[in-house]
Amino acid sequence: MSSVSLPRRRIAIVSTYDELCGIAGYTRALERQLAEHADVKVFDLDQFLLRSMDPKVQKMGDAHIREIASHFGQFDAVNIQLEHGTLGRRVNEIVRRFKVLSDAAPHLTVTFHTILRDQPVEWLPILQQFARFTFEKGFTTVIA
User: Fold this and answer.
1) In whole angstroms, what is the distance from residue 83 CA to residue 113 CA?
2) Residue 106 above 90 pLDDT?
3) SS3 96
4) What are phi and psi of 7, to 5 degrees?
5) Is the pLDDT of residue 85 over 90?
6) Sheet holding 38-44, edge to edge
7) Helix (H) or strand (E) segment spanning residue 22
8) What value does the mean pLDDT take over residues 29-37?
9) Helix, strand, or coil (residue 120)
10) Any idea what the Cα angle at residue 48 is, between residues 44 and 52, rounded to 5°?
11) Could you tell me which of 70, 66, 74 has the C-alpha nearest to residue 11?
């Protein structure tokens, strides 16, 4: 009986990667765990570009997201480490940039970190929208 070696899976993680960020710390630990089983590449979200309120810099932030998404064809799966603010400051920026990333991902998982809400989250309508691949509606429900 011969053993067949399967190719290693390639996983992209989209996250902040700054030393002082808790999400980056989580991403580093996740990267170490996954590296035993797959080839992992972390795409660092440039927070200067993505959180700026200047319209010219916001366009550069959109280009930064498109550049990251352009590499997703090289991967089997994409994971987005998402917290309010990591893709932008305003809902329309966050949703627009999330859509670019999710549309380009061959297979997608999203790790939601902190969701800022005054009231409890009603997960069923959100998950129903995600199951229909209507991410914009589902995502808007989460951050509305």
Assistant:
1) 5
2) yes
3) helix
4) -65, 145
5) no
6) 38-44, 9-15, 77-82, 108-112
7) helix 22-35
8) 93
9) coil
10) 130
11) 74
Read off the pLDDT of each residue in 101-128 and give the average, rounded to a whole number.
79
Write the burial class of residue 140 (CB in 10 Å: 0-12 exposed, 13-18 middle, 19+ buried).
middle
Helix, coil or strand: residue 2: coil
Highest-pLDDT range among 17-21, 58-62, 114-118: 58-62
Distance of CA 31 to the CA centre of its chain: 14
Stretch 131-135: mean pLDDT? 72
Helix (H) or strand (E) holding 115: none
Q: Which residue has the tokens 């999400």?
A: 23
- Tokens read off for 140: 């808007």
Instruction: Measure Cα distances from 33 to 3, 38, 77, 90 in Å.
Output: 25, 9, 16, 33
Contact between 28 and 94 under an 8 Å Cβ cutoff? The reply is: no
Name the nearest CA neighbour of 42 among 9, 68, 70, 64.
68
Q: What percent of the chain stands above pLDDT 90?
A: 59
Q: What is the pTM of this model?
A: 0.77
- CA–CA dist 51, 88 (Å, integer): 5
Count of C-beta atoms within a 10 Å radius of residue 91: 13
What average pLDDT does the segment 20-30 reach?
A: 86
